[in-house]
C-alpha cells in the first residue's frame, strides 16, 4: 500500500471515529515543546490492514514489578531528554483504554540497571489509549542498535513484547533484530527530542 493511501486511510478512520488530531493530542498531553516543533506525523497504526505491532524478544534485562511512573528521569540520569507519546489501538481500530505499558532501556552509556529500576517504569494508557513517557535517549549497547524495550498489555488481554527503534542509526543495518516497522517518528524540539509511536494490539 502506498504512503498516500495509508495516510488517506488513516484520515478517513479519524474522521469516522471522531478521534482528536495528533496536534491536539500532543497539546492535551502537555507537550508544548513538541507542538512548537510541529505536529508529529502518526506512526503506522490503524490503517485498512489493521496489522498488529510486531513482536520482538524481551532481551536478557527485563525486570518485573517496575514502579508506576510516566517519567524515568531522576537525579544522576544523564543524556538527551526525550518525550515519547502515542496511542494504543486494537486491531479493530478502537482505542485501548487502560492498557499497561512497561518500558525499560539502557542509560546514555549503554548500560542497563539490573539491581534496581533506573530507566524502568510502567504506566497505564488514558481513556483514549494515549500514553506519554519522559526519559532520555539510550546509549548504544554492545552488538545492538539504539532501542527501547516495551511490553504492552490490554486489560485482561495478551502481552505484546517489542522494541522501538531510532531512525537514521548507523547500526540499524547491522542489527539482526532491527525492524523498520518499529521505527519511531522523531523530531528535535529544542534541547530535547519528541518522538511518537502508536501500538496496535490484539484483544482477548
Task: Detail the topology: elements first, then pairings.
Layout: H1 3-17, H2 22-28, H3 32-36, E1 81-90, E2 100-104, E3 120-124, E4 130-136, E5 147-153, E6 160-165, E7 185-189, E8 192-196, E9 199-201
Parallel strand pairs: 1-8, 1-9
Antiparallel strand pairs: 1-4, 2-3, 2-5, 5-6, 7-8
Low-confidence stretches: 1-42
Provide the helix percentage: 10-25%
Number of helices: 3
From the 3D coordinates, which CATH architecture would you assign? Sandwich
What does the radius of gyration come to? 16 Å
Span between termini: 28 Å
- Say how many strands there are: 9
- Whole-number tally of structural domains: 1
From N to C, what is the helix and strand string?
Answer: HHHEEEEEEEEE
**What is the averaged pLDDT score?**
83
Question: Can you tell me the CATH class?
Answer: Mainly Beta
Please give the oligomerization state of what you see: single chain
Outline, from the CA principal axes? globular
Main sheet properties: 5 strands, mixed
Would you tell me which CATH topology applies? Protocatechuate 3,4-Dioxygenase, subunit A
Amino acid at each position: 500500500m502506498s504512503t498516500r493511501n495509508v495516510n488517506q486511510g488513516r484520515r478517513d478512520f479519524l474522521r469516522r471515529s471522531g478521534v482528536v488530531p495528533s496536534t491536539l493530542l500532543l497539546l492535551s498531553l502537555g507537550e508544548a515543546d513538541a507542538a512548537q516543533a510541529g505536529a508529529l506525523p502518526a506512526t503506522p497504526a490503524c490503517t485498512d490492514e489493521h496489522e498488529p505491532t510486531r513482536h520482538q524478544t524481551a532481551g536478557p534485562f527485563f525486570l518485573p514489578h517496575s514502579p508506576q511512573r510516566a517519567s524515568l528521569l531522576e537525579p544522576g540520569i544523564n543524556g538527551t531528554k526525550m518525550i515519547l507519546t502515542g496511542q494504543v489501538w486494537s486491531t479493530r481500530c478502537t482505542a485501548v483504554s487502560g492498557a499497561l505499558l512497561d518500558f525499560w532501556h539502557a542509560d546514555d552509556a549503554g548500560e542497563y540497571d539490573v539491581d534496581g529500576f533506573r530507566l524502568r517504569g510502567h504506566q497505564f494508557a488514558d481513556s483514549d489509549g494515549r500514553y506519554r513517557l519522559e526519559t532520555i535517549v539510550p546509549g548504544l549497547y554492545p552488538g545492538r542498535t539504539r532501542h527501547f524495550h516495551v511490553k504492552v498489555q490490554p486489560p485482561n488481554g495478551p502481552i505484546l513484547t517489542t522494541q522501538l527503534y531510532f531512525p537514521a542509526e548507523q547500526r540499524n543495518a547491522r542489527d539482526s533484530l532491527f525492524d523498520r516497522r518499529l521505527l519511531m517518528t522523531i523530531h528535535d524540539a529544542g534541547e530535547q527530542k519528541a518522538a511518537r509511536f502508536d501500538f496496535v494490539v490484539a484483544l482477548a
